[in-house]
Amino acid sequence: MQKPLLVAVTGGSGSGKSTIVRKVCEYSPDLRISVLQQDHYYRDLSHLKPAERDAVNFDHPDSLDMALIRTHLEALAAGHAIDRPSYDFASHTRTKEIVTMEATPIVMFDGILALFDSSIRRLFDVSVYVDVPDDVRFIRRLRRDVRERGRSVEGVIEQYLGSVKPMHDEFVAPTRRMADLVISWERWNDRSISMLANAMRELLHNPDKSGLKFS
Ligand SMILES: Nc1ncnc2c1ncn2[C@@H]1O[C@H](COP(=O)(O)OP(=O)(O)OP(=O)(O)O)[C@@H](O)[C@H]1O
Ligand SMILES: [Mg+2]
User: By three-state DSSP, how is residue 119 classified?
Assistant: First the structure.
């Protein structure tokens, strides 16, 4: 099997990463794409008391098991299957559920910190940053958390100002300049989806073109 194409889709929370990944998969039924979500890789906090777990900053890179993300992406890149962990957000612990993920020709990694760690960043063949103004991302997050997660408006605002925004500014926003492609996703744009899917198809069939030199 040809070496799988690893694609990073990153950007701030509420930018639309998961939406774009889903749409690219829907648009490209001919491509065998598997998706790995960063959210499965939060560190297990079962050794902490519940009150201590709630005090952890989940928007900080240290809350993620970066070593396991790297190991799993390296395995998929080499064409090997992985046993993906699962995470329970209510108790902040890793569950017993293990999901075996086969290596497919294309693997998309969806996460706010996909490009933060240089040893992970270098594994990707292509990286995309989904760029949306902070106010729009906040509104999307507020709407989602209140409607779908039963959160209070005050609670969402407090979390946003307390950790989401400062961590975004410090760790996520600076990775924008490291991406190969920046997608503007303030409005719905089917063309961005088809262009990304077509670029992935092109790289899959003509991998040498990724090293094309322009003069
Ligand atoms: N172009 C768009 N216009 C309006 N709403 C959008 C657009 N794209 C996505 N949304 C909506 O915005 C919300 C956030 O999108 P999504 O969950 O894809 O973001 P995300 O980047 O994966 O966020 P997170 O990092 O928190 O997982 C969802 O409710 C989604 O339906
Ligand atoms: Mg998401």
Answer: helix
Q: What distance in Å separates the CA atoms of residue 161 and residue 45, rounded to the nearest whole number?
A: 24
For residue 127 and ligand 1, the question of a CB distance below 6 A is answered with no
**Each residue of 100-146: pLDDT tens digit?**
999 999 999 999 999 999 999 999 999 999 999 999 999 999 999 99
Domain 5-204: top CATH class: alpha beta
Return the DSSP state at 128.
E
For 197, the token pair is: 């899917």
Half-sphere exposure at residue 56, Cβ-oriented, CA atoms within 13 angstroms: 23
104 close to ligand 1 (CB < 6 Angstrom): no
Judged by DSSP in three states, 102 sits in coil
Token couple for 81: 């299957």
